[in-house]
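User: For a benchmark we're assembling, each entry needs the component sequences followed by a predicted structure for the full assembly. Here are entry 17's components. Please fill in the structure.
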Amino acid sequence: MVDLLEVATEPSRRRLLQLLAHGERTVTELSGEFAVSRSAISQHLLLLEGAGLVAARKEGRNRHYRLDRAGMNRLRGLFDAFWTSELDQLVADAQDTRPRHAQGES
Amino acid sequence: MVDLLEVATEPSRRRLLQLLAHGERTVTELSGEFAVSRSAISQHLLLLEGAGLVAARKEGRNRHYRLDRAGMNRLRGLFDAFWTSELDQLVADAQDTRPRHAQGES
DNA sequence: AAGAAAGGTTAGCAGTCGCTAACGCATCTG
DNA sequence: CAGATGCGTTAGCGACTGCTAACCTTTCTT
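Assistant: Structure for entry 17:
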């Protein structure tokens, strides 16, 4: 089984998801945005499809990929589960901790 | 130079960050929570430290690791940048047309 | 019908990853 | 002091990853 967060985090796939956020795209269209081969992109898309993050609609000889709402929702849930309230608090502190806790970081 | 999101996403490191959200921990304490060797955890921690997500305080022969607020804030920023408004819209839509296997609203 | 175009499939390869084992170096304790 | 403890370091290994190249099928075009 695959780790949804890891699948979505890989740079090329992350970018694919962002591109697909603008709407449906074919494999060839998507490949045009990358330096790597169409085959590489195809494999990324199949992986994303297997993870349930994207879905494809076949139309003639084209495959139109789109984001899968449910899958992306699950991804969001996983991130939210990771980003617990403790982390929220820590990051909130980082915003205005200048005066009191001047913890040295560069 | 490392991809912050990928560094933070790896399952063991993700868990380390969550454990550290509760406060400072030494390497040995943290290792106790994992099935793998102390060396493996140490290497994960050094990677996280290199990425600026955690910091260590030396006290005697112990090293107390803690989350780095600024680093975690950068991580949050990266995720927010990925999760564009388009994605927000898509996931919002998924709430209505929710398929029968949904999970993860808080 | 013949060729072009879209795209999935497979083999194979180089690079990376996470891990363990063994070690070295401090630091603490009896 | 000698031994134990905490922890980083290094070498090496098996597994995995992302990639390309070549191929095959299906569909469109002329």
